[in-house]
Amino acid sequence: MRKGLFTIYLIAVFCFSFSYGQKEFEIDSITFNLNYQEQPSLSKKILIPSLLAGTALLIDNGDFEKELQPRLNRNLRTRIDDYTRYAPLAGMYIADVLGVEAEHHWFDQTKNAALSLLLTQAVTTGLKVNIDKERPNGMNNESFPSGHTSLAFASATVFFEEFKNTEPLLAYSGYAFAVTTGYLRIAKNKHWLSDVILGSAIGTVVTKLVYHFDYLFAWNPFKKSESLIIAPEVSLEGAGVYMALKF
């Protein structure tokens, strides 16, 4: 059953990639000069997360991950993964305050980050409830996919999209926090390997889609206010707003 689902998934990804590539080729042959067409094709952007999702479906509930879990499980009691999932976003705003050149204005960064996190959370929660996979520690049946990991990779991808053209090394550093978050979820015996892999795919692909289509919601009332930065602040105690002035 799962192998059949995996086969259908691969066929769907191939058909989407081919048809979208054809559409972009036809558009590029016409002399339109639209900014969003200068970006890499959507099929290229979602290739890696698509392969990750396929891998997760392939190993889900298989002997491989069941044998691997006892080796990776460390029964950790740390809560650092509650913070590392948002660390890339914190890094993005710190970079803004320090004057590091980013791809977008801070308001657009916040808008894209909020959309990415909300959509990622919605997709992840929907899958958790409907797939009904038991966690390795038996706590509940909301294991697949990992919510911490999906949010961590959404945060890391926002960070990457903002600094990939100006500070590539800085841009990739966000994924270190995302990978660490995924590992900790397994080491705490909260998730299986496939849960973490699918979570990484969801967070990445949702954010890639948000950035690919961000021209559809290009609205920024603070465009002329470069000295003021307003950002969301999230912690275990709740959520709030962080404000900073650049001098």
Could you describe the 3D structure shown?
The protein has helices at 2-28, 42-45, 47-59, 63-72, 81-84, 87-98, 106-131, 147-163, 168-187, 193-212; strands at 228-235, 238-245. The chain is mainly alpha-helical and 247 residues long. The chain has a two-stranded antiparallel sheet. 62% of the residues lie in helices and 6% in strands. The model is unreliable at 1-11 and 13-37 (pLDDT under 50). Strand 1 (228-235) and strand 2 (238-245) form a beta hairpin. It is built from ten helices and two strands.
Can you give me a brief rundown of this structure?
The protein has 247 residues and is mainly alpha-helical. The protein has ten helices and two strands; from the N terminus they run ααααααααααββ. The protein is 62% helix and 6% strand.
Q: Which SSEs are present, and which pair or pack?
A:
Elements: H1 2-28, H2 42-45, H3 47-59, H4 63-72, H5 81-84, H6 87-98, H7 106-131, H8 147-163, H9 168-187, H10 193-212, E1 228-235, E2 238-245
